[in-house]
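Follow-up to my post from last week.
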Amino acid sequence: MVNPVILIAVPLGLAFAIPLFALFWKDIAKYTPPVALGFNLVVSLLLLPKVLENPVIVSIGGLQPPFCINLVAGPVGVLFSAIIALVGLLVSIYALDYIKEGPTEKYHMLYLLLLTGATGLVLTGDIFNLFVFFEVLCISSYALVAYLRNKAGIESAVKYLIQGAVGSSLLLIGIGLLYGLFGTLNMADIAQNIKSVSPISVFVPMVLIVTGLGVEAAIFPLNAWLPDAHSSAPSSISAILSGIAIEVGLYAVARVLFTIFGVSLSTTPSFLLFLALLGILTLLVGEMCAFSQNNIKRMLAYSSIGQIGLIVFALAIATPYGVTGGLFQLVSHTLSKALLFLAAGYMIYQAGSMEISALEGMGRKMPLTCLAFTIGAFSLVGLPPFIGFPSKFLVVRAALATKETFLFVLIGLALLGTVIEGAYFFRVVQVLYFKGEKPNPGSKDAPVAALIPMFIFVVLIVVVGIYPKLVTDVLNSAASEFLNRLDYIRSVLG
Amino acid sequence: MSFLDSYIYYIGAFGLILVGLYIILVKHNLIKVIVGLGILDTGVNLFLISVGYITKGTAPIFSKSGIDSKHMVDPVPQALVLTAIVIGVAVLALALSLAIRLYQHYRTLNLRKIREQRW
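User reply:
Got it. Predicted complex:
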């Protein structure tokens, strides 16, 4: 049997080996991340069929849980680690050619560390370990946002760092309070005992932890850093921040709320409705700000906020349909937004500007890149036959199945948000294809190393969009892991 | 035992946390904000330690015979704080190096004057 520990150990070891390797041969730095992430992808896919039957629990240090740090490779963890490895692999192939300036070996090291942090965060079963991996992810992303060392990058990295550091301090206070209450850091053990103390004393750490994680997950009042950071980072990093980092933050919020604090429809319906409302607010704010942007990367960043809002809303429905829909929407957003940022990267490179108006006629200069961008945009808006259609469809169906008037109103607002989303994406597509001067004879598309990952993203988006059954089984069992916390506790503590 | 005796560490820790948050929210100078982050970190670390601290307790490993577990300090929060200190140092170091870069670009550290990015 493959041990899930290697999913963390191999990329972590290789990340710190990169600067050493680079002393001898500089080019090895850029080939290490694809190798490590390809390895992770294979291991995750090998583990996936096993964990669908039974979660794999790894105890570190030879003790039994709850006395050791443990990894829980359940359907959720392995699904997420597979997505992280897949997107990370494709983006690292893109970066082979895209990242030319600056200290490139540091870029590749931080990149691999960021993805190691994300993988560890989704696999761990210990709440302090979750904090450590969260910090690994955050610190590497602060540094990567500032990678280009230009004015905008440094300024947004400072903003991101200050907000992120306050968020992680709040998270740590929450963890300290939980430890004071329960005397354990094991998530399953805390979850088992959560009913033994008064709800008020649990409420304070819950708010602190959700606020702390919410900064990274960019839930509405905490997302001021996101548009700056995502738009001034290199495009490959924007793709990872939008496609992986905030999704992993959302995973942590969902894990803490559903598994540890046992939020469910039967016990705390009003809190879930509040979360749903917060999700829709996030969605509307994000979509409306995206609509008014002239800078293409800021537009994509605000659109990420909108999508996060929809995912929060879907998770807050907290029925099996709702959580499945939320996870599906999360996968669809990861694939589509990563594709959009990758395509936008070379379009900006070609145009020499991030203004949308500078991209006029790009559809004739870079036909393949623009086609990829268009498919990503259509998928994000939710047009069939792309992956965005089945995922949004599931979310809407889940909301309608609840028979809760308040949720009907909210899903109506979410659909309004989708209309706004359609408006600004179609505007960009129109600029790409139907504006500007006559065809430029010297058409120059993105290099092959960038076109291959984009092509794979397009294939995934179309194939899963036409045949969603490919992923729904995994998503269903992932949703049931979130909702059946007793099974989780039993599988960890035996 | 009076109220102060049992809660003095918590009062100190949350006092530091509030001072740190106040500095981060109110000060304009980036260096001061970073100092605020440092104070916030210290407060959180002190809080974690005080969760497991027992007055006049001893370390659990080197305890003499005859000391029961009631007088042993919980070692887990101390291990957590070691990790948290390391993370805090990394964040502060990164913040200071970003501050140097920011100064090179803008010739000022006043965050109210550095406003190129907005909504």
